[in-house]
Fold each of these.
Amino acid sequence: MNYYFKNKKAMLLFALPGLLLYTTFVIFPLIPELLISFQKHNGISSSGYVGFENFKWVLTNPRFWIGNKNILIVMAFSTFVGLPISLILAIMLDFQGKKVRRFFRTASFIPAVLAVTVISQIWIGIYNPQWGLVNTVLRGLGLENWSHAWLTNQDTALICVAIVFVWQYVGFNMVLFYAGLKSIPKTYYEAALIDGAGPIRSTIKITIPLLQDIIKYVLIISVLGCMGLFVHVKMLTSGGPGDASMTVIYLLFNTSFKDMEFGRGSAIAILFLAECVLVAGLINRFVAREKIEF
């Protein structure tokens, strides 16, 4: 087997099927998208070549930058709130009995596999200003002044969408972290216990460093998921009020399918792809740089 790994021709042969599939379904579809981004296009026919005008329109459009700012807020919420919650839940699950672990591993997938439209309808009811759960609880606690229309308030609409997104996938991320936890040899924790390390110190010194590859993977899929946020926004707020919950993908949708400006929409898509590649590259470059083997 080592011979094949050292033989570049053998490695290329084994990688060729996957490379062909990737090129066919990922690289080739980008070519017409790139060509359309340099044209004035209505989705059916082209009105001519316009050079970089579409890109200029996107980069000078305030809504594009508002969408990027909103994405950054959702990414920050997911990274600094959602992922730590998932990790804590995974660690807590590891201390439970077999039946409890089996139940929560199964139950945690339910929100992730449900359609986003179903999830959104549930949370529209929770956020309802008249009879929703959030305002009902606030009134019951004597905090009626805090109750308001959460999804139509410019200050809370985006964070409400972020909460729904994080809630839907917190269990899925928990299972990924839990799978990583089970791969860590128990001898490390036994040695730490002998040295007098408690659960918190063991988590900081052993669990988190040895989970760095899993953390990188979960971070990448979570961040890219936040960047591609669309259906939650469409169902919950329609990008409003105003542009308070607008995202880049939602702007792309409106530009292409409502305004019928497919040239500008393609320019947004190309720039958005560049942003995704850049973010994924930065995470891959600066997170979990050292390979830890155990």
Amino acid sequence: MLKNKSTLWIGLFVTAVAAFTGGMLTGYFYKAPSIPNNLAVYGTDEQVSKVQTDLYISFDSELNQKQQLEKLSTLISRYKFCNLPIEVKSVNNGIATINLDEHPWVKQTNKPPSIPGCSGRSWRYVYFQGSAGGYATAATLARTFVQPDYEGDWIKGVRFSYLGKPIQDGDWNHISLDGVITRDNLP
């Protein structure tokens, strides 16, 4: 009986050492890109009390800045905002102009859609509403496009528009996406 327990413990120890060594070798030979060279998708914690990095991504180095922004807008739309349209309109003098649009069926009415799931999501009726939700939306969009922790060559700031019109101070009670947002004035 004692021999079987000893054999079991020795086997478990050897397995643990082998797994640890394999993991160390894998990490040595297959290094992940360093985080400062990756772009981040930001969000907030569940209590919307702090901004956090939800995902790191990298793009082909041959893409120009506008192409990277377009891929970033597609990713953030899918990952954070139920595929709501986010379009990079331009990049001029280091300032990106991003248009937040609605699905066609939301544009056709002045009331919230009654469609369940992501198809019923809307900037106007969901993501721009409520102090916590509005803050989470503004922080996610602004920080993800401005990339405050990115050390490479990136845009200086971002300007948001909604349905093709620049977002102005006072347009919405719970979001702060007006003017040019830079690393110095992030929500």
Amino acid sequence: MIENIDHIILAVEDLESAEDNYKKIFGINPVWRGVHNELGTSNVLFNFENTYFELLTPTGSGIGADLVNNAIKKNGDGLLGLVLGTKNVNAFNKKATESGHLLSEVTSGEGKSAENKKRKWLYQFLPPEITRGIFSFIIEHKSDGLPCIKHGKSTVKKLEQVVVKTNDCDGFIEVYRDLFGIRLALDSFVEAWKKRMLFFRLNKTTIEVIEEKNHKVLPTDSLWGLAWGVENIYSARERLLKNNVVVSNVKPGVKKDTLVATIKSHTNNVPTLLIEHTKKA
């Protein structure tokens, strides 16, 4: 039903500054700069092997501008949304409705670039019992894909992990496995952390879910951080340092045959990790 993590949305107050930050982090240029006139927002898109990354800012009036303005007012720049892709959004609407969820109608959307190029899509907004605190919707693209970017050994090439925190793993499984149809690859209690952890896998990306019980009565999820894959983490670290990006030393990752480094600046408040898989497939 759900084919991929279509894209991640980062809400930013200053689009130009955020674009400059992520050009340094990713080591590539964006493939799109555009506006959503009906939503009151503007965006910049970076494309990767398995997803794309959207910087979104308010530039007018509309529900999109209201959403971003409220998020920035509450938390400053930061992760805003997790968008899931499907080949048939109407089929998803039918399944979710038959499962007892009250959904709005499927809506059409459009973005226009500075060069007057257009991107079109259909999207399904989701009710609170499905989103559970994360701004999320289902998208079916009706235009050609974004331009591909050539990635070097020091540049970011793919999204490895999206880290989510929840107070209700069982409910999360009901949504992401049972409704969305995403494969649950791991359900484990980590003794060292005294926490339950879930791994969902799709389009070569892991949604890592960490359960943290809290005082909230309602099931609540939140986007926490991202991990990006690189071909050579030492080359990536050297490139970042040359661009005055603060990054930790490289160390072995928790997962076997990985190396990791933490990016500590230029992330617009997003906890960010680089990962290299040392054992190539």
